[in-house]
Write a structure and sequence with these properties.
The structure holds 2 protein chains of 2 kinds. By secondary structure, chain A is an alpha/beta fold. Chain A is built from 10 helices and 10 strands. Chain B has one domain. The chains are: A alpha/beta, B mainly alpha.
Chain lengths: 244, 288
């Protein structure tokens, strides 16, 4: 079953196509890789799926029924989608713990003033921060974390949302091996829980290891799709990625 | 003693303004330069009701709050379309418009001649014409504003405000209608400024538009930047510093023909030095 589909999706920047009539379908419960050279439109696609950018034309279909031609950032949550960012975007002058708590508390203004589930939210925060090894740093400002820790905190923040679809934009970039292992385990656990992961990644080894299916993009278009072991052997893919 | 009580009342009024503005600027990261407009609307509503309609102080105060809530809602809706420097410029424009209304709506505000003869409150037989009693009244309102603000910033709502300050797009992606949060805190802050305005009008017993110019908004902004953005106690400290500093400088001993100007110069230099060496303010948690 397709949990997210894009149909003839188009996004232009100053007339230049960043996404050019892209039609893809993401299977529920799988780890789907989006690969391609820099500037191929991978992050733009994630930004469109998460409402950060407006769609110029085409549509996104969620769960096979909800057709979306215009999606605002705050609506993404209600479609069960969450994300991380290529360039880490934390709430810098807030503590590690508050970076988690802020995304799991009430969305309604009145309820957020008179929060009732404080203990439950702290439990979720502890669970996800333990998972990424940041619980002991819960009272530190996010701005004071190392680059790798910041990436892990962003992933923990996404996990705390308990979403259905996780959009991870280069989550392994710049991480030490032990941190890469943590992220790798998290991604595989999400799959075991029947969650959907869309993974942008440049490391072909990781793509082969983790992804069930991949889409290869180039210049905003779909170049190929299929199982990683077969797609990544194809000559035109190797040329697009690594040059001649 | 009367002089000290006078300073204390001014300090409490400006601390109320500082605490309320800190909710918008320090906690939500919206550079608003229009607080004096809401302060002025609160003051004029109280002044006009007390001098022309004969209603009591507390009814006029509530009326001022209601009017400010309606106006700040409309202004907030317009402001929701702007961010960053543009946001500050639009608030600047709004303050200019309100000032022009105070100055030119002669029938209502008496223009540049101002509204004289504003009475002091009287409640349960306590006459607040006595300055000490008025100080107690102002303190009661300040404590209410302070604890309401503290409740807000310590709640989950306050945490979302801080996240908006840090990265509005990021927090929106997690399902928060940031425009609503910004609008609500803007209205709450404006309503608190109206309380300060009512107290000011009733205390001074005469108001004119000059008290609510853009420079007044800048002064309130200076209080919270100096005391500390994102820290309510910083607003109190900033108000204390800026209210007392000119008074302290009176005793420096400049010659009488230049002392007023020199006080302004010294005052300016101290502000510049503080911003150079302590940009987050005295006890602030956030830098603009």
């Amino acid at each position: 079953m397709k949990i997210i589909e894009t149909k003839n999706l188009v996004k232009r920047f100053n007339g230049v196509y960043a996404i050019d009539r892209l039609s893809i379908g993401i299977e529920k419960g799988q780890i789907t890789g989006i690969v391609g050279p820099n500037g191929s439109g991978k992050t733009t696609l994630i930004n469109l799926l998460s409402g950060v950018l407006k769609i110029d034309s085409g549509e996104i279909v969620v769960d096979g029924t909800e057709k979306i031609t215009r999606i605002l950032p705050h609506q993404v949550f209600f479609y069960g989608i969450t994300r991380t960012f290529q360039n880490v975007r934390l709430f810098e002058q807030m503590t590690v713990l508050d970076n988690i708590l802020v995304v799991i508390t009430e969305r309604n203004i009145f309820s957020s003033l008179f929060e009732k589930h404080i203990e439950y939210h702290h439990k979720i925060a502890e669970e996800v921060l333990q998972k990424v090894g940041l619980w002991k740093k819960k009272n530190q400002l996010a701005a004071n974390l190392s680059y790798g820790q910041r990436k892990l905190l962003e992933i923990a923040r996404a996990l705390a949302m308990k979403a259905e679809v996780y959009l991870f934009d280069e989550p392994f970039a710049g991480l030490f091996p032990e941190m890469r292992k943590i992220v790798s385990v998290i991604v595989q656990e999400l799959k075991q829980k029947n969650k959907t992961v869309i993974l942008i990644e440049h490391d072909i080894g990781l793509i082969r290891e983790l992804c069930d299916y991949i889409f290869v993009m180039n210049e905003g278009r779909l170049l190929a799709e299929g199982k990683p072991e077969s797609v990544l052997e194809r000559k035109e893919i190797i040329e697009a990625y690594f040059g001649n | 003693m009367e002089y000290l009580i006078h300073l204390a009342i001014l300090f409490v009024i400006y601390a109320t303004l500082g605490v309320s503005l800190n909710l918008v600027v320090g906690y939500t990261g919206l550079l608003s330069v229009t607080h004096a407009a809401f302060y002025g609307i609160g003051a004029y509503t109280t002044a006009i009701f007390l001098t022309k309609s004969g209603v009591g102080f507390f009814s006029s105060l509530v009326s001022g709050i209601v009017i400010v809530v309606v106006i700040s809602f409309l202004v907030g809706v317009v402001l929701s379309k702007f961010k960053g420097d543009y946001y500050a410029l639009v608030t600047f424009g709004f303050n200019a418009i309100i000032f022009a209304v105070f100055l030119n709506w002669q029938n209502l505000t008496n223009g540049s001649l101002g509204v004289p003869g504003i009475s002091r409150p009287e409640l349960f037989g306590i006459n607040f014409a006595n300055n000490f009693n008025f100080l107690i009244l102002a303190l009661i309102f300040f404590v209410l504003v302070y604890f309401a603000s503290r409740f807000i910033v310590n709640s989950s709502f306050g945490r979302v405000l801080k996240a908006i300050r840090e990265d509005e797009t990021a927090i929106a992606v997690f399902g928060y209608k940031t425009l609503s949060f910004k609008l609500v805190v803007f209205i709450i802050s404006a309503a608190m400024a109206a309380v300060a305005g009512s107290l000011f009008a009733s205390y001074i017993t005469f108001i004119d538009p000059s008290s609510f110019q853009l420079t007044e908004s800048m002064f309130i902004l200076a209080i919270i930047i100096l005391g500390g953005l994102g820290n309510l106690r910083g607003s109190i400290l900033g108000a204390l510093f800026l209210i007392l500093l000119p008074e302290i400088l009176r005793f420096v001993g400049f010659s009488s023909d230049i002392d007023a100007q020199m006080r302004q110069v010294v005052y300016g230099i101290i502000l510049i030095l503080l911003m150079l060496y302590r940009p987050q303010g005295l006890i602030g948690e956030y830098k603009l």
